[in-house]
Amino acid sequence: MKTIVGGIEQIGYGAELLRNGEVVAFPTETVYGLGADAFNARAVAKIFEAKGRPQDNPLIVHIADPADIGKVAASVPETAVALMEVFSPGPLTLILPKREDLPETTTGGLRTVGIRIPNHPIARALIRAAGCPVAAPSANVSGRISPTEARHVLEDMDGRIPLILDGGCSDIGIESTVLDLSKEVPVVLRPGAITAEMLSVYLGKVVDFKGKVLIAEAPGMKYRHYAPTCACQAARSPEVAAREARRRMEEGARVVIIGSTPFVRACGDLPVIDLGNTPADCMRNVFSAMRNAEKTADLLLLEDFSDRREFYSLQNRLSKSTGGVVLS
Ligand code: TXA
Ligand code: MG
């Protein structure tokens, strides 16, 4: 199959492909998604095939307008309506009971469904033009680093899908916050740019931050994620990163250190990629940095952010890339 990369002029073609049961990659503000008609089980099966994704890992269903939530969810609690009003369109996915007619292929066999309204003009125009809710995981091969640019999608999906819509770099750079509202107590299944603190205002005392943040494992979390094609470890400090980099380089390894501006500046004249100063900068740049670095490196050394609360969502991803290995 030939894979075309197009811009906004291809939205109409993309919508036609979706209506015809094909798979289309499209930009969102978090990461690129690999979409199919959420109600067409055979189309959705093509997503799993293109990604090599385990069948029991549920997909997020994307809609363009809050009014469409009832097309996917069997019931919509008041909390969900309130959260949608504040945070949608945006990087928040809500887990709700699914409608009977939504195929279980889409929800990985679960009775619930994740729903999100992306805040990217191309994503919303595509969903509107297709006229159906669009199931879409991140557009990477399962287990690989999530794509934040069209060229990342092409690296993983060339020849496997007919169309990639190019909408530039994803603004946020890590995936949406996943909040499960199907249980009595709301649970953050995956942290993201919308933090538990931001949600807590609307969830009242349900989410308690004084030691009782409710975090559970999303089904997808048991698999290795965000894995570069080369080795990848975290370093507690610039000194540790620099020492390890020099040691490995003496053995002939090619090493790249990736971290925030102060961290990489403190690494001296070693090969580094600077992610920027703020948590937002670092989230936006991290996946692209890893994909660039893995092309030439044998080892990536990532800054460990685990002591810094503002970097919580970023650290959540990095600890999966490293498999939890931290040098100190
Ligand atoms: O930002 C995002 O959410 C991106 C863009 C494309 O929208 N999508 C994305 O999809 O990250 P994916 O499939 O890579 O991650 C979805 C996560 C998985 O960990 C999955 O297990 C969880 O959400 N999830 C989806 N539906 C669920 C459900 N019904 N119950 C529990 N977890 C669910
Ligand atoms: Mg993913």
TrEMBL record:
<dbReference type="GO" id="GO:0006450">
    <property type="term" value="P:regulation of translational fidelity"/>
</dbReference>
<dbReference type="GO" id="GO:0005524">
    <property type="term" value="F:ATP binding"/>
</dbReference>
<feature type="domain" description="YrdC-like">
    <location>
        <begin position="8"/>
        <end position="194"/>
    </location>
</feature>
<feature type="binding site">
    <location>
        <position position="62"/>
    </location>
    <ligand>
        <name>L-threonine</name>
    </ligand>
</feature>
<dbReference type="InterPro" id="IPR005145">
    <property type="entry name" value="Sua5_C"/>
</dbReference>
<dbReference type="InterPro" id="IPR038385">
    <property type="entry name" value="Sua5/YwlC_C"/>
</dbReference>
<feature type="binding site">
    <location>
        <position position="190"/>
    </location>
    <ligand>
        <name>ATP</name>
    </ligand>
</feature>
<dbReference type="GO" id="GO:0003725">
    <property type="term" value="F:double-stranded RNA binding"/>
</dbReference>
<dbReference type="GO" id="GO:0061710">
    <property type="term" value="F:L-threonylcarbamoyladenylate synthase"/>
</dbReference>
<dbReference type="InterPro" id="IPR050156">
    <property type="entry name" value="TC-AMP_synthase_SUA5"/>
</dbReference>
<feature type="binding site">
    <location>
        <position position="30"/>
    </location>
    <ligand>
        <name>L-threonine</name>
    </ligand>
</feature>
<dbReference type="InterPro" id="IPR010923">
    <property type="entry name" value="T(6)A37_SUA5"/>
</dbReference>
<feature type="binding site">
    <location>
        <position position="138"/>
    </location>
    <ligand>
        <name>ATP</name>
    </ligand>
</feature>
<feature type="binding site">
    <location>
        <position position="53"/>
    </location>
    <ligand>
        <name>ATP</name>
    </ligand>
</feature>
<dbReference type="InterPro" id="IPR017945">
    <property type="entry name" value="DHBP_synth_RibB-like_a/b_dom"/>
</dbReference>
<keyword id="KW-0067">ATP-binding</keyword>
<protein>
    <recommendedName>
        <fullName>Threonylcarbamoyl-AMP synthase</fullName>
        <ecNumber>2.7.7.87</ecNumber>
    </recommendedName>
</protein>
<keyword id="KW-0808">Transferase</keyword>
<feature type="binding site">
    <location>
        <position position="176"/>
    </location>
    <ligand>
        <name>L-threonine</name>
    </ligand>
</feature>
<dbReference type="Pfam" id="PF03481">
    <property type="entry name" value="Sua5_C"/>
</dbReference>
<feature type="binding site">
    <location>
        <position position="112"/>
    </location>
    <ligand>
        <name>ATP</name>
    </ligand>
</feature>
<keyword id="KW-0819">tRNA processing</keyword>
<feature type="binding site">
    <location>
        <position position="116"/>
    </location>
    <ligand>
        <name>L-threonine</name>
    </ligand>
</feature>
<keyword id="KW-0547">Nucleotide-binding</keyword>
<feature type="binding site">
    <location>
        <position position="226"/>
    </location>
    <ligand>
        <name>ATP</name>
    </ligand>
</feature>
<comment type="similarity">
    <text>Belongs to the SUA5 family.</text>
</comment>
<keyword id="KW-0548">Nucleotidyltransferase</keyword>
<dbReference type="GO" id="GO:0000049">
    <property type="term" value="F:tRNA binding"/>
</dbReference>
<dbReference type="InterPro" id="IPR006070">
    <property type="entry name" value="Sua5-like_dom"/>
</dbReference>
<dbReference type="GO" id="GO:0005737">
    <property type="term" value="C:cytoplasm"/>
</dbReference>
<keyword id="KW-0963">Cytoplasm</keyword>
<dbReference type="GO" id="GO:0008033">
    <property type="term" value="P:tRNA processing"/>
</dbReference>
<feature type="binding site">
    <location>
        <position position="57"/>
    </location>
    <ligand>
        <name>ATP</name>
    </ligand>
</feature>
<comment type="function">
    <text>Required for the formation of a threonylcarbamoyl group on adenosine at position 37 (t(6)A37) in tRNAs that read codons beginning with adenine.</text>
</comment>
<dbReference type="Pfam" id="PF01300">
    <property type="entry name" value="Sua5_yciO_yrdC"/>
</dbReference>
<feature type="binding site">
    <location>
        <position position="146"/>
    </location>
    <ligand>
        <name>ATP</name>
    </ligand>
</feature>
<feature type="binding site">
    <location>
        <position position="136"/>
    </location>
    <ligand>
        <name>L-threonine</name>
    </ligand>
</feature>
